[in-house]
Amino acid sequence: MRSALVIGSGLIGTSIALALSGRGVRVHLDDDDADRRRTAAALGAGTETPPDGPVDLAVIAVPPARIAAALAAAQHRGAARGYVDVGSVKGGPRRELAALGGDLTWYLGSHPMAGRERSGPLAATADLFEGRPWVLTPTAETDTEVLNLALELVALCRAVPVVMDADAHDRAVALVSHAPQLLSSLLAARLERADEAAVRLCGQGIRDVTRLAASDPGMWIDILSANPGPVADVLAEVATDLERTVHALRSLESADEAKRETGTAGVETVLRRGNAGRDRVPGKHGTAPARYETIAVFVSDRPGELARIFADAGRAGVNIEDVRMEHATGQQAGLVQLMVEPAATAVLTAALRERGWSLRSP
Fold it and tell me: Where is the Prephenate/arogenate dehydrogenase domain (predicted)?
């Protein structure tokens, strides 16, 4: 691939353009919003100058509701040899393109499974997709040349290609991406009018669960409007579980011992189902989830402290598999939770204590 046209200069489009430009592809930027286009160009994502003729690949990086129209327009003017979109919904745009008379032979739907809570070109990074799954949804109609161009795009962005059926993809992302966004927002909404005393008690748990609630509502309205049925199906199942859990919790308030036992069993069931589901989430590098031990270290909020603790772990010959941070309320300090292989726990614990670190129960 020597040339590409990226239509849409938001987070995903600009990140793709940055990755391609950084690997020697001449990238042309196209966006109805001139400010976003200029910003992306200023970041080094490509040129605002239109291409002289057809490019190798056109990447459509606009909201799902606009994908089909943007694809049809690009095909009508012969913008490229092949066309891919990178929207988060796949079945609908393909059907809409067919209804508009678009050529499905030279089009392939795709979805890089990466993003950030922030949107727009200023949030873009060239390494956004590194090591992340990138779904490709070819059909029997898809020309081999377009599939090869799409695979080259994924490789240049250093992502991992995953081939799926378009509608199966939409059901999958409803479960693992779209419904979690709404559930995070619903829980965070409980904090809007909560007492200040309650809000001051917020810890890492509520921060983890509500992280997605910081996302741009406008972007998510576009996404959810393009995949409402599968998302509603997931939420309907969650609503059924919620109703049962509420009933179980009410039973725990009863003076009747039998009802309390029933309530306990109901709550335990949902917690154990959660354990089982969480155990299926892939671990590092997409492998089976690993069981790590956690070492919690009290760290002051000073420059260089994190670098020092990682260096001390390295000197002890221990690899940090994962890390989390929990900031202390009202203090310039917090806990750094280091996840390590169980066999390395004793070694790292002794090494950190020897170097003066204060360890806490995680």
Answer: 2-289
pLDDT tens-place values along the chain, 362 residues long: 999 999 999 999 999 999 999 999 999 999 999 999 999 999 999 999 999 999 999 999 999 989 999 999 999 999 999 999 999 999 999 999 999 999 999 999 999 998 877 789 999 999 999 999 999 999 999 999 999 999 999 999 999 999 999 999 999 999 999 999 999 999 999 999 999 999 888 888 888 899 999 988 988 898 899 899 999 999 999 999 999 999 999 999 999 999 999 999 999 999 999 999 988 887 665 555 567 888 988 888 788 888 889 999 999 999 998 888 776 555 667 788 888 889 899 999 999 999 989 888 65
* Residues near 186 by beta carbon (within 8 Å), at least 6 away in sequence: none
Q: Give the end of a domain, one of 164, 198, 217.
A: 164
Q: Which helix (H) or strand (E) holds 185?
A: helix 179-189
**Cα separations (Å) of 127 from 13, 66, 100, 202, 326?**
13, 26, 35, 32, 26
54 touches 82 (CB < 8 A): no
Q: Are residues 152 and 267 in the same domain?
A: no
> Last residue of a domain, which of 164, 192, 210?
164
CB 16 within 8 A of CB 59: yes
Sheet of 133-137: strand order equals: 26-30, 3-7, 55-60, 80-85, 107-112, 133-137, 160-163
Strand partners, 30: 7
Biggest distance spanned by C-alpha atoms of the chain: 80
**Which residue range forms the structural domain that includes residue 322?**
293-360
**How many secondary structure helices (H) and strands (E) does the chain include?**
14, 11
Do the beta carbons of residue 37 and residue 30 sit within 8 Å?
yes
Closest CA to 124 of 206, 221, 27: 27
The rounded distance, in Å, linking the Cα atoms of 46 and 103 is 27
Is 325 part of any domain?
yes
3-state secondary structure 242-266: HHHHHHHHHHHCCCCHHHHHHHHHH
